[in-house]
Specification:
It is built from nine helices and four strands, in the order αβαββαααααααβ. It is mainly alpha-helical and 193 residues long. The two termini are 17 Å apart.
Length: 193
């Protein structure tokens, strides 16, 4: 979303995580996605770092110019503590120690804070979208879809925020499905008019 928002041209390669090509490991030994290789050969292999880099290239609506420290704290909590709790909630069958309800309570703790914040404002940091909104959205979306009825009933302000982002032109542009890239094909060139 950061690359699309900044209207940055790039070559997109869709891969299957269960069949990761060697070329992915050649770029980043982590073998995770997304990974961005810049024209100068340097590699960025963390989502948030790719988004921050994109915003240094072009940030037309000032997503990352105000309340940067506060945004960073919220993103760090999301990518750390919440992500760990989300994984146990989503994959509760793999983590039978505490049970589904305990994992649901753990994620609900975070979701309640977001819901409270959004009762009085449209986005995480006020009336305008920010990097924090875009960074949190995929994780909240994953969490919501474990039990969408529960999520929408319990966290109405957060659900409204999530639905507005899911309905956005930006989100729908990046959710386009591409053919899986293999090492014999070239990637899809993404250029913005």
């Amino acid at each position: 979303m950061g690359l699309a928002y900044g209207r940055l041209s790039y070559e997109h390669r869709e891969i299957l995580l269960k069949d990761r090509p060697q070329s992915l490991y050649d770029i980043s030994s982590k073998g995770t996605v997304p990974v961005l290789q810049l024209a100068n050969g340097s590699v960025i292999d963390e989502s948030i770092d790719i988004m921050r880099w994109a915003l240094t290239q072009n940030d037309p609506e000032a997503w990352y110019r105000d309340q940067v420290d506060e945004q960073d704290k919220l993103i760090e909590m999301n990518d750390g503590e919440f992500k760990q709790r989300l994984d146990k909630y989503k994959y509760h069958v793999r983590f039978p120690d505490n049970g589904f309800e305990k994992y649901r309570l753990d994620v609900a703790d975070h979701l309640c804070r977001h819901d409270e914040r959004l009762r009085s404002q449209t986005f995480m940091f006020g009336s305008s979208i920010s990097l924090a909104d875009i960074a949190l959205m995929p994780f909240v979306r994953q969490c919501a879809h474990v039990d969408l009825d529960w999520f929408e009933n319990e966290f109405q302000s957060l659900a409204k925020w999530l639905n507005s982002l899911k309905d956005s032109k930006l989100f729908n542009i990046i959710m386009k499905k591409y053919e899986v890239w293999d090492q014999t094909s070239s990637g899809i060139k993404i250029k913005w008019d």
